[in-house]
Design a protein that fits this description.
Distance between the termini: 60 Å
CATH topology of the largest domain: Four Helix Bundle (Hemerythrin (Met), subunit A)
Largest sheet: none
Order of helices and strands: HHHHHH
CATH architecture of the largest domain: Up-down Bundle
Radius of gyration: 22 Å
Number of domains: 2
Number of strands: 0
CATH class of the largest domain: Mainly Alpha
């Protein structure tokens, strides 16, 4: 193990230098793979993002924490989406009252956990298809 602070920096620089040299000699893999097309029956990404951000904003607000960022994210999905304001309002009403039958082995707050299971709900799926 290297104990001097400069040693870790030198090691990191050497590793990065090796990577740069290797990339110069052979093609490097792309930084990220190209996006995969969603299935034709997949819900609109903005409806999914809006739903998750709205749920998270409600969770934060219920606990007295700052929810402004989550509300801004939800608003961004509304602005970028192509659905009507009524579609987002219907989803928001559903999310506010949604109590899924979730069971966990760990002590997880179900009001937070529900934000990650909205798409599993038949009612959520029905609302999304109706829009």
């Amino acid at each position: 193990m290297m104990s001097q602070p400069g040693s870790a920096v030198a090691l990191l620089a050497a590793l990065l230098g090796s990577f740069v040299v290797a990339c110069a000699r052979a093609p490097c893999p792309p930084a990220a793979s190209p996006p995969v097309a969603a299935p034709a029956d997949a819900p609109d990404a903005h409806l999914v993002g809006f739903s998750q951000a709205t749920c998270l904003a409600l969770y934060l607000h219920e606990r007295g924490w700052d929810a402004e960022s989550a509300r801004n994210i939800a608003g961004g999905h509304v602005e970028l989406g192509t659905r009507s304001a009524e579609a987002y309002a219907a989803l928001s009403s559903f999310i506010r009252d949604y109590e899924p039958p979730l069971s966990t082995q760990q002590p997880i707050d179900k009001h937070l956990l529900r934000c990650f299971h909205l798409e599993d709900s038949a009612e959520w799926q029905r609302l999304v298809r109706a829009q």
